[in-house]
């Protein structure tokens, strides 16, 4: 049975955030308004038995940022208060500013250095605890008696950061264990500083403050967990929708279009028609293999640039009966990413097939050129055209051509008038 997500998060710490279940309860990503308790209950019910994403493993390290930033902010404030209101204490000064520098170094390390195994993070936690204990001992042993209570706040605030850090990284039990160990530790510091005669009030307030640190860190963990699972649910929904859209476009641009082209009756020699259908079937088989990532012989233009892709596309359309005249500029189109080349190529194929089916002409001009800092493909025919206001957006335009270019960061524009043909402009950035 899968563990309850929030309970696992609170008991084990931020590392649980790296689990990525294959399915999440529908209530987590319910588009309808639901109560916060119901949504959090759905989050709590989600599982932690999914695979651990390497990206999420690295991202969970960012949970330590809050305690580090807390100490970077609070230690200088405590030191300024000590000096301004009470007096200068050398050991407390060293603890304050060494703590600021150490936490800044930890902050930079977390943001810049990957720790795939997690061993460095474990060593960081252990070193932080040792330094927090050493800071408390140093100040208690060296601070003047009249300044002891004010000076002791500097290492104590540093210690609360350590409690929060361990709670975030190792869970609430680890934080509570530090609080429990902190009780005799505080008594020992009071004895070291000669203040054991009035140990009850500082012990109660110190333990309460550390408990507040545990509760604050646990609350932050819960908020991180809920936000992460909500983002994961939304990402899974968008991924499913995007994959469905890509599958529909692929089927529309390959199988459906090929079947429609094969079904078009042109008359003539049956043997010639049979050869044409076989050629179209081979071309579509190669296109499907390319879409599935399967190597296929004769795959034209792969990795050679957009001009080569369009040349292969013109040859493919010639087998279907459309003569495409190419006008290719001398430009470095091989700098386009594979995703952008594929988007332009497939959108151009759809435009050419629309010409073949609807324009009433068998000739088209296809031009490749630089435009607005990107690369544009303009497809122009002198067919019957259509009224753009009267014609509803079909799947081929709204879902295939426009969607492909939009996903690649580009755009598609179609200009057409009855009797004046159609011009399709496809543009992608470099």
Automatic annotation (TrEMBL):
<feature type="domain" description="Histidine kinase/HSP90-like ATPase">
    <location>
        <begin position="343"/>
        <end position="429"/>
    </location>
</feature>
<feature type="transmembrane region" description="Helical">
    <location>
        <begin position="62"/>
        <end position="82"/>
    </location>
</feature>
<dbReference type="InterPro" id="IPR050482">
    <property type="entry name" value="Sensor_HK_TwoCompSys"/>
</dbReference>
<dbReference type="InterPro" id="IPR003594">
    <property type="entry name" value="HATPase_dom"/>
</dbReference>
<keyword id="KW-0902">Two-component regulatory system</keyword>
<dbReference type="Pfam" id="PF02518">
    <property type="entry name" value="HATPase_c"/>
</dbReference>
<feature type="transmembrane region" description="Helical">
    <location>
        <begin position="176"/>
        <end position="198"/>
    </location>
</feature>
<dbReference type="InterPro" id="IPR036890">
    <property type="entry name" value="HATPase_C_sf"/>
</dbReference>
<keyword id="KW-1133">Transmembrane helix</keyword>
<feature type="transmembrane region" description="Helical">
    <location>
        <begin position="147"/>
        <end position="169"/>
    </location>
</feature>
<feature type="transmembrane region" description="Helical">
    <location>
        <begin position="122"/>
        <end position="141"/>
    </location>
</feature>
<feature type="transmembrane region" description="Helical">
    <location>
        <begin position="210"/>
        <end position="236"/>
    </location>
</feature>
<protein>
    <submittedName>
        <fullName>Histidine kinase</fullName>
    </submittedName>
</protein>
<keyword id="KW-0808">Transferase</keyword>
<dbReference type="GO" id="GO:0016301">
    <property type="term" value="F:kinase activity"/>
</dbReference>
<keyword id="KW-0812">Transmembrane</keyword>
<keyword id="KW-0472">Membrane</keyword>
<feature type="transmembrane region" description="Helical">
    <location>
        <begin position="88"/>
        <end position="110"/>
    </location>
</feature>
<keyword id="KW-0418">Kinase</keyword>
